[in-house]
Amino acid sequence: MANGFHLTLMIGPVVPVPVSQEVLEALTSLSVTTNSESGSGFQLEFTLSHRSPLQTIFLLAGGASIPLVRVVIIVTVGGNAEVLMDGVMTNHEIRPGADASHSVLTITGEDLSRVMDYIDFSGFPFPAMPPEARVGLILLKYAFLGIVPLVIPSILIDIPIPTDRIPVQQGKDLAYIRSLADEVGYVFYVDPGPEPGMSVAYWGPEIKVGEPQKALSINMDAASNIESVSCSFRSQGAVIPIVYIQNQQTHVPVPIPIPNISPLNPPLGLIPPIPLNLEPINETANYSPIRAAVLGLTKAARSVEAVTATGSLNVARYGQVLKARRLVGLRGVGEAFDGLYYVKSVTSKIKRGEFKQDFTLTRNGLISTFAKVPA
Q1: Whether the Cβ atoms of residue 63 and residue 129 lie closer than 8 Å to each other
Q2: What ranges make up the beta strands (E) of 38-144?
C-alpha cells in the first residue's frame, strides 16, 4: 500500500512472521482502535475466492488446534515505523460476496491483554505485597510474548500485614490487575512496541504530561492537516467526591470532600467547569484512609474532563501517526478550544492507498494554559 505509507502485516502462532504477498493482496481494509480507558482492538477484512487456500488457513488458525494466533500490524510513515497493534485473533466470520465467486473473511481481535483473560488463578496468595508488587509478579508470566512490565508504585503505599490478612488473587489475571488499578486510582493497558514483537504493560496513573505530538491544524490554509473537528464543552459533569473515613474508636464514618489536585493531571484549560454536585462514594467507609483518598482524587480528576474534540485526519497530510494516551496541540478552532489536549482514543482505518484516523481529545477547561503549541 502506497500513497505516503507502507503496511507490514505479521501473523503466526506465538511468534508472528510476515505474511505472503497473496495474503497482503487479499487484504481490503483494516482498522485499529486504541482507547486510554480500555484495551485496544483490531479488524481485518480479506476478499477471497471460494477456492483460495486462505480460507482454510485462517479458519484453522481460529480453531482449537492453534489457540493463540498473534497479529502484528506495522505502518511506516515518513520513514518511521509505528507498531499499531500487537494482539491475538478472537473471532472469524465468512460472508458470501456479491458476485458469487468471492467471499469476505473478517477477522477481529484484541491486544495482548486478552491473553491474560484465559486462565483463572483464583486463590494464589500474595503475602506482604502491595498492589504494585502483585502486578509485577503476575506480568512476569507473559514475558514469552515480549511483554515488558512498566509498573509505577503508588504514592500512598498500603502494605497488608501478614498477621492481619494475606491478599489472594480473585479471578483471572486481567480482571485482577484492573481491580488492583481501580483500588489505587490507576489505569492498566498494554501498549504495542516500540519494536515489533514487543509490548509495554503499563500499570500506573493516567499521565497527562510530556512532549506534545505535532499540532492538529484546521482553517489555516496550507498549514491545515486535519479534515474535520468538532468541539464541545460539558459544564454540568464536574463533581466534588465525598469519601468517608471511619473513626476507629467510634466507628462513625466522617465525610471528607476531595478537590481535584492531582499533579499528574495538570490544568490544560484556564476556565474549568464549576462542580455543581457532591457525589458520595459510600463504599470508601470500608476502605483504609489511604485507599479512600486515592479513589476520591481519581474521581475528581476524571469528572472535570469537560472539553471534548472529535475529528478525523489523513495521515499522509498530517505527516505522522497520531498516538493515543499522549498530548497533542489543536489550532484553528478559536481561542476557547485551541491549545493542548489529551488524546483519549484513536481509530486508524487503512484501505489500499488510504490511511485515515478518527480521534477524540479531552481536557479540563476552556482557553488553553499555553499561549503556543508545537507545530
Answers
A1: no
A2: 41-49, 69-77, 80-96, 102-111
Structural domains of the chain sorted by starting position, each given as residue range(s) with its CATH number in brackets:
5-112 (2.40.10), 119-204 (3.55.50), 215-234+306-368 (2.30.300.10), 239-303 (no CATH)
∠ at Cα 275 (269, 281), nearest 5°?
Answer: 120
Residue 56 CA to residue 92 CA, distance in Å, equals 12
Q: What is the residue type of 56? A: T
DSSP string, 293-308: HHHHHHHHHHHT--EE
> Cα angle vertex 184, ends 149, 168, to 5°?
75
127-178 pLDDT, tens digit per residue, is 888 889 999 999 999 999 999 999 998 776 667 677 677 888 999 999 999 9
Q: What is the pLDDT of residues 286-332, one digit of tens each?
A: 666 766 777 776 766 666 678 899 999 999 899 999 999 999 999 99
- For Cα atoms 237, 243, 248, give the angle at the middle one, nearest 5 degrees: 175
CA gap 10, 57 in Å, rounded: 14
CB atoms within 10 A of CB 249: 6
What DSSP state is assigned to residue 116? G
Of 56, 57, 88, nearest to 71 (Cα)? 88
Are 32 and 40 within 8 A, CB to CB? yes
Reduce the DSSP state of residue 21 to 3 states and report it.
helix
- Which DSSP letter does residue 249 get? T
Asked if 5 contacts 75 with a C-beta cutoff of 8 angstroms, the reply is yes
